[in-house]
Design brief:
454 residues, mainly alpha, 81% helix, globular, disordered C terminus
Length: 454
C-alpha cells in the first residue's frame, strides 16, 4: 500500500513538473536527456541566485561604497564579459580534458568562493588600494568563471538535442529570470534597511556561499559529456586564430556582434551609476524595476523559444536588437522630472530585448560554430566580445566627459552628458539594423538575378 501510494505521489509530482516546467510539450517531456534537462534548470536557478547576490546592482553598489569613480563603476556590469579577453587560448586548455563534468565542478569550486572573498576587501586592504584589489579579484574570479562557462556551453550543446534546444533554453531561462524577479528585490530591501552599509553587503555575500554547494550538486547529476578531439589531434597557438578567421560565416556573425556591443555599451554601461549616484534612486526602486523586467520575461521567453525553432535564430536576433533600440531610446529621455516614467518604460523594453537576445544569440552562435574544435571558436568569440566591452565604456566615458564640459549641454539638457550618449547608441543600433536589411536585399537581388539568367 505504501509502495503504491509513493508511486502515485511520484507520478502526480511528475505530471505537475511536466505541466508547470515543460508546458506539456511532448518533445521536452519524453526527451532522452530529460534528467539532464531537469538538473540544468536547477543549476540555472542556484547559479542565478549566486550571481544576483554577488553581482549586478549589488556589486555596483559595493564599488560605490568603496569609493570607485563613475567610469570604474561603469565597468562593473560588464566585468564578467570583459574577463573573457583572457580566454583566447582557452581552447588549447579545454581540448586536453575528456571529462567536462569534473572540470566544471573544479572550476566552479575555485571561481565562486574567490568572487565571494571581495567582501573581505574593506577589512583587510588599505583605503587607497581597495578599488584596485577589488578589480584584481573580480578579474581573476570572473576569468575562471568564464572559462567554466565555455565548458558548460559545450556540455549543454552536446547533451540537449538540437530539435528542442530553442524551446528548452527559453524554459531554462525563465527560471533564471524568476530569480532575477525575486532576489534583487530582497537584496535591495536588505541594503536599504541596513543603510547601504557594510553589514548589508556582508549578509548577501555570506548567503551566496550556500548556493555554490547547491550548484555543484546540480552539475554532478547532469549526464557527462566529452570534448570533441580530446587527445586525438595536436594543436598549436596559431590554430586558435587561424581556424575561426578562415570561417566566413562565423566571422560575419562575430563582426556584427562586436559592432552591436560597442554601440550599445558606450552608454548602457553607465545606467547603474546614473541611477545610484546621479538620480539618487533607492536600491529598492532599482530592484523593483529589475523585478518588473524579470516578470515580463517569464511570460515572453517561451515565445522567443518558439520563434527561434520556427522562424530561425537570425530572425529572432534581429527583432531583439530592435527592442534594444527602444530600450536605450527610453534612457535618452530620462531626467529628474521624467525618471519615474521613462525608467520603467526602459525596463519594459529591456524585458523584450534581453530575453530575445539571450535565447537567439546563444542558439545563433552555436549554429555558426562547427562541432569540431568548438572551444577554439567559443574562446575566440568570447575574447573578441570581452575586448569590445573593455573599450566601449572607455570611449563612452571620454564622450561623457566631453559633453559634461560643454556649457550648452549643461545649460540646456538635464544630465545631457548621459542622455546624448544614449541617443548616440540608438543611432548606432539603428544603423546596424539598416545595414543588415540592405545587405539581405542585395543578396536576394543577386540570387534572383542568377535564377532569371539560368
Amino acid at each position: 500500500m505504501l509502495i503504491y501510494r509513493s508511486k502515485y505521489n511520484f507520478l502526480n509530482l511528475k505530471r505537475i513538473i511536466d505541466r508547470l516546467v515543460y508546458h506539456d510539450d511532448a518533445d521536452l517531456i519524453n526527451s532522452l536527456s530529460r534528467k539532464s534537462q531537469d538538473f540544468f534548470i536547477l543549476q540555472a536557478i542556484v547559479g542565478s541566485i549566486f550571481m544576483v547576490l554577488t553581482g549586478g546592482v549589488v556589486l555596483s553598489g559595493f564599488a560605490v561604497y568603496l569609493g570607485a569613480s563613475d567610469e570604474t563603476v561603469g565597468y562593473i556590469p560588464l566585468i564578467s564579459s570583459i574577463s573573457g579577453i583572457f580566454l583566447v587560448f582557452s581552447g588549447l586548455f579545454l581540448e586536453r580534458f575528456k571529462n567536462i563534468k569534473k572540470l566544471v565542478i573544479c572550476l566552479n569550486s575555485i571561481a565562486k568562493p574567490l568572487l565571494v572573498s571581495i567582501i573581505l576587501v574593506p577589512l583587510l586592504i588599505p583605503e587607497k588600494l581597495k578599488v584596485l584589489v577589488l578589480f584584481i579579484i573580480l578579474i581573476i574570479g570572473y576569468s575562471i568563471n568564464m572559462l567554466m562557462s565555455l565548458a558548460i556551453n559545450s556540455w549543454f550543446v552536446n547533451v540537449i538535442p538540437l530539435n528542442i534546444r530553442g524551446r528548452y533554453f527559453a524554459i531554462r531561462q525563465v527560471f533564471a529570470v524568476i530569480i532575477s524577479a525575486l532576489v534583487p528585490l530582497i537584496s535591495g530591501i536588505i541594503l536599504d534597511i541596513t543603510g547601504k552599509s557594510y553589514k548589508g553587503f556582508a549578509i548577501l555575500y555570506a548567503t551566496a556561499l550556500v548556493f555554490i554547494i547547491a550548484e555543484n550538486i546540480a552539475f554532478w547529476n547532469i549526464e557527462d559529456s566529452y570534448i570533441e578531439n580530446s587527445d586525438r589531434e595536436k594543436f598549436n597557438i596559431a590554430d586558435v586564430f587561424r581556424m575561426p578567421l578562415k570561417n566566413k560565416e562565423f566571422m560575419g556573425f562575430t563582426y556584427k556582434m562586436i559592432f552591436f556591443y560597442m554601440v550599445l555599451y558606450i552608454s548602457a554601461s553607465f545606467s547603474q551609476v546614473y541611477m545610484i549616484r546621479y538620480l539618487r534612486l533607492s536600491y529598492t526602486f532599482i530592484s523593483t524595476m529589475s523585478t518588473i523586467n524579470a516578470l515580463i520575461q517569464i511570460f515572453i521567453l517561451p515565445w522567443w523559444g518558439k520563434i527561434c525553432d520556427q522562424r530561425g535564430n537570425e530572425f529572432a536576433l534581429r527583432i531583439s536588437i530592435w527592442f534594444f533600440a527602444g530600450d536605450i531610446a527610453m534612457w535618452a529621455l530620462v531626467s529628474r522630472s521624467s525618471m519615474f516614467v521613462f525608467i520603467p518604460m526602459a525596463y519594459i523594453f529591456g524585458a523584450f530585448s534581453n530575453s530575445g537576445f539571450a535565447v537567439a544569440n546563444f542558439n545563433r552562435k552555436y549554429s555558426v560554430i562547427p562541432e569540431k574544435c568548438r572551444t577554439f571558436y567559443d574562446g575566440f568569440y568570447t575574447t573578441a566580445i570581452g575586448l569590445t566591452l573593455l573599450i566601449a565604456p572607455f570611449i563612452g566615458g571620454r564622450i561623457k566627459s566631453f559633453l559634461a564640459g560643454a556649457s550648452f549641454v549643461q545649460g540646456n539638457i538635464d544630465f545631457g552628458e548621459f542622455r546624448i550618449l544614449y541617443a548616440l547608441s540608438v543611432l548606432g543600433i539603428v544603423s546596424l539594423q539598416v545595414f543588415d536589411l540592405l545587405k539581405d536585399r542585395k543578396g536576394k537581388g543577386k540570387f534572383n538575378g542568377i535564377n532569371q539568367t539560368s
